[in-house]
Give the backbone structure.
Amino acid sequence: MPIPVLTIDGPSGAGKGTISRLVARKLGWNYLDSGSIYRSVAIAVQNASIELNDINAIVDVAQAMALEFNCGDELIVRLNGSDITSQLGLESTGGVASVVAAYSEVRAVLLKKQQDFRRLPGLVADGRDMGTVVFPDAEFKVYLTASAETRAERRYKQLIEKEIDANIVEITSEIEARDRRDMERETAPLTMAVDALYIDSSNMKIEQVVEEVLNLIR
Ligand code: DC
């Protein structure tokens, strides 16, 4: 019996992290936040002052990085021994992550690191290509989205709650730029798997989305 996987793909700010964490907790399954792996590469690249067009250096850094995930109630991530959790959520980190994620060589290096999260009793995997590339054989697939406006508002609230300075106009244009990059890149672009359940959460409460996802598994 293959280890069950639920993939939740979708654009930035669609609520994938919140929903995936809640569903994983309800099911007692493991959780993979694949975006945080791309974000870790972004931080490693920034720490080493590597230019974003230097593909070879970026691939080397991605290959060499030692990542430790502590997926308790709060995600804690260590990169080569240092706690990088507070840097992970920054908009600038997400922007650089989206740039390095467009390189097929970087994606190839990260593929196995992500597949290694598939452990019993099951896995909830959130990202852009979980159902299309990383776990194409997943039994359960969801494509979670929301309007760009709703996503920008949610992101804004999240940042303000974390006491990170934020500007709604800048966030909207960053989200639109990130959508374009993630959807238009050649390798593993964000697209809905043919066998995924489509959920537009623009006018839904978190609990409703969680219920709909759990219904798919029940
Ligand atoms: O989900 P996130 O915002 O943490 O992801 C940050 C960036 O990483 C996103 O803009 C594109 C990239 N990413 C990706 O290309 N594939 C994934 N499975 C997850 C994230």
User: Anything to note?
Assistant: The chain has one domain: 5-217.
